[in-house]
Amino acid sequence: MRLVLATHNRDKIQEINVLLQELPIQILTFEDFDSLPEVIEDRDTLEGNAEKKAREIYEETGLPAMADDTGLFVHALHGEPGVYSSRYAGENVTYADNRHLLLKNMEDVPLKDRDAEFRTIIVLMLNEDEKFIVEGSCSGYIGFKEKGTMGFGYDPIFYLKESGKSFAELSLAEKNEISHRGRALKKIKKILEEITKNT
Ligand code: ITT
Q: How far, in Å, is the centroid of ligand 1 from the Cα of 139?
């Protein structure tokens, strides 16, 4: 079975590849195609955007496609940046720009009110009639400064309550074990195991 990852985000691809590597599946990315269209994420929910990405890439390639849409929901900011996490500081910004704006907007928020949650929705589109939707989330809080050098995106400012470590202080395997994406991917892995068992 071949599966196309409907994402241009190399950091996500790395996390997904590690978790699904044991499956008898050939994972393809945008690099395996001459050109895959950039899907415009114009829906106002994670599910809407994940569905759109998976569907457009499925229609373009004719192959099963899987898309992940993720957001960081900060309670003190009424759920911001949420669905707009990749463009929080504007269009064409860096991960660091987004983190700096978030830290600035949280400047006066005391530790007890800094709770946040990562949420991921993954849509797996096998064909026109078969679609699976799973979710995964991870709770933590926004620190006062960046810590750690691993991971990507908001990882250096997202801290876990139990250990006080930021996601950027965890190895890829440690992050995958407890993260929003790791949790969603474990559900997808079960589905794919069933599918490949019967083919
Ligand atoms: P695709 O749509 O091409 O998959 P994207 O980077 O636009 O890539 P999302 O909209 O799902 O992906 O992600 C929004 C942003 O949230 C992303 O750009 C990162 O800044 C951040 N993000 C996503 N997953 C993350 C993670 O596991 N750790 C830290 N930040 C993450």
A: 16
Domains of the chain: 2-197 (3.90.950.10)
Characterize 102-130 residue by residue with b for buried, 16 or more Cβ atoms within 10 angstroms of its Cβ, and e for exposed. bbebbeebeeeebbbbbbbbbbbbbeeee
7 CB less than 6 Å from ligand 1?
Answer: yes
> Which atom in ligand 1 lies closest to the alpha carbon of residue 167?
28
Q: Is the CB of 153 under 6 A from ligand 1?
A: yes
Per residue in 38-72, pLDDT (tens digit) is 899 999 999 999 999 999 999 999 999 999 999 99
* Cβ 137 under 6 angstroms from ligand 1: no
Ligand 1 atom nearest to 158, measured from its CA:
29
Q: Are the C-beta atoms of 32 and 106 separated by less than 8 Å? A: no
Residue with tokens 């983190």: 99
Is the Cβ atom of 30 under 6 angstroms away from ligand 1?
Answer: no
> What span, in angstroms and rounded, lies between the C-alpha atoms of 199 and 196?
5
Mean pLDDT rounded to a whole number for the chain: 96
The answer to whether 14 and 173 have CB atoms below 8 angstroms apart is: no
